[in-house]
Fold:
Amino acid sequence: MIKLGQYQPGDTTVHRLDPRVKIVAVVALSLLIFTATPAGIALITLALAALIREARLGLARTAAALRPVAFFMALIFLVHLLWTDGKVLLSLAPLPLAISREGLVQGAYVTWQFAGLVVSAAILTMTTLPSDLVGGIERLLRPLAWVGIPSQDIAVMIAMALRFMPMLLEEYDRIRMAQMARGADFKTGGPAVRIRAARALAVPLLLSAFRRADELAEAMEARGYRRGPRTTLYVPRLARPDYTAFALLAAFTLINFSLRWIA
Structure:
């Protein structure tokens, strides 16, 4: 199973782009997603689908990587669907809940926003090596050094957080399979039974996360990691495809803003 944030090797145009270009593109797409009009929703969705196709990730592989956040997407949709006031389409009496037209529209819109943000981040992490991602973040944050903000330390922390995401998901699957092999059942029973089953997973998962963090800290100390300026073996330089990607991103952003003004 492909994990969210796990790098997928490839030799596509998206893989070969400078990590700074991809990071800036994700930030720009995130801003556009938050302010998208109905026409912008269709345009951004097509752009994300085109990026997935160009990177040869495949819709099935992307969906498998997004499976861990499917529950939160469904929860976001239901909260807006059931608790947004508006024209009632279906009453759930005797419960004090109702499905409204505005709730249906708002729930679909907010769920699309969440999915768009996650897909954008997934494309970035699935097409960029962690070391390249660290270098790109560090170079983008380098101007902050003038005000005393350690850009390299921030880049390392972000990279470790991105690396821990698939690691924790892998550890969760390992613990769940081990407990199922010992007779644990996580799919049947009432709410109380399922809560106890979730607690049986959460405790060893937290202990494993703390243990991994201690091992990482010891490994960094053993390799002499210290704060301060650092050099890299490979210094990335923007090439013609990167400038072309910047131009396409600028045109895409202008088109989205034009759609907003027209609407």
In short: The beta strands are 88-91, 98-100. The longest strand covers residues 88-91. DSSP finds ten helices and two strands in the chain. The chain has a mean pLDDT of 84.
